[in-house]
């Protein structure tokens, strides 16, 4: 059992006794459903109060255990009904969130996810990033790890020379069957033009380079025409 600073032997024994007495017991709140009024009252009573974990620093061993527990928990399958309810709830919460809240949630989620699984960048994103650096020197930057977020959505690559241009890499595991038009329309609301690249297109690097070159050239020509007009 964890030792606390300045803890007496009596306190430690008492904690051990409480811990042992609760082994095998079911939580009194298990399967208990609180009414909407009760939940609102609980929410009001906690508003303005600092989190009990604020300023608390976990040890390296605790952080490691939390990471392992998170990974193991993700392996447990959930029923289709539970998955549907979770998705519905998350979509409702996301719909009412402000752009600032979406950006903060997405960045925190990606940061935590990457710390455990090292998911970002993916192998395909790494390959495209190398290609961009070799063929378009100092033009593109990888931001798919949450570095740059627009309205709650995170593009994969952005132009780093002042042009409002983005590149989205659609991998089969995540975007199968999707056209990407919703992403294009979303980023367009913020003045950005978006190029969609499919994962299977990465097999032909010369075609990809030509596609990106045409995308940049067309965007510059349209921008020049608008300025002239």
Note the overall shape: elongated
Strand-and-helix sequence, N→C? HHHHHHEEEHHEH
Structural class: alpha+beta
Task: Give the CATH superfamily of the domain at 123-228.
Answer: VSR Endonuclease
Poorly predicted runs = none
Strand order of the largest sheet: 1-2-3-4
Q: Helical segment tally?
A: 9
How far apart, in Å, are the first and last alpha carbons? 74 Å
The biggest beta sheet is recorded as: 4 strands, mixed
Mean pLDDT across all amino acids: 84
> Which fold name is given in CATH as the topology of the domain at 123-228?
Endonuclease, Chain A
Describe the structure concisely for a colleague.
Helix content is 55%, strand content 8%. It is built from nine helices and four strands; from the N terminus they run H-H-H-H-H-H-E-E-E-H-H-E-H. The longest helix has 24 residues.
Describe what you observe in this structure.
The chain has nine helices and four strands; from the N terminus they run ααααααβββααβα. It has 229 residues and is α+β, with helices and mostly antiparallel strands. The chain has a domain at 123-228: Endonuclease, Chain A, CATH 3.40.960. The protein has a four-stranded mixed sheet with strand order 1-2-3-4, with helices on both faces. The radius of gyration is 25 Å and the shape is elongated.
Q: What attributes characterize this protein structure?
A:
229 residues; alpha+beta; Endonuclease, Chain A; four-stranded mixed β-sheet
Task: Produce the secondary structure layout.
Blueprint: H1 9-21, H2 36-46, H3 60-75, H4 80-96, H5 99-117, H6 123-135, E1 140-142, E2 157-159, E3 165-170, H7 172-175, H8 181-188, E4 193-198, H9 205-228
Parallel strand pairs: 3-4
Antiparallel strand pairs: 1-2, 2-3
